[in-house]
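Human: Not sure, check this?
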Amino acid sequence: MSELTPESGIGKILCEAKLIAVLVIDELDAAVPVAEALLRGGVTAMELTLRTPVAFDAAAAIRAACPAMHIGIGTILSPDQVAPAIVAGAEFGVSPGVNPEVIRKAADAGLPFGPGVMTPTDVDVAIREGCRLLKFFPAESAGGLKHLANIAAPFTHLGPKFIPLGGINLGNLKTWLDHELIAAVGGSWLAPRDVIRAKDWAKVEANAREAMAVVRG
């Protein structure tokens, strides 16, 4: 078993990175350039979502060309997606919800995994399955930091930390990062789907630099 925790392995790396770019890649030839642009801007971790047919191949291409980039595979909805994620070079896996079957498959395969939570029941199930670094999704529309603090309160003595995603942007990034429950923040605004499609790598790099200035600031 390889657990995703704030204290060790890839979990510790993500907590130190503080910022995770969340990507949807439609064309394989965009994979390496967008990763390179993020790295130039100082972003060293990404969640590559399984929303397009090229996602696994894109992850493998980035792994081969950009060893400094820490890659996670997101939107893992089925246990059958765990093995291909590992083959593609994923260092961690993420899902939008809590599926014990997927969590157990990832644990058996040695893939550190962070399920998505939004309710006290979600947090309870995730912790019972051995997860300690959890994705809070969708962060802003679910009620933001106030909601997260409320649902996490009964479990804080067990040590969970959260990576919010959904509605995070440059304007509220610091507020999220300053909260004690937050390990890191996921951001789709760093490399939006339309910007990747337009192959505007300068924009991706500029977004990454701007965000990292807040992270370091």
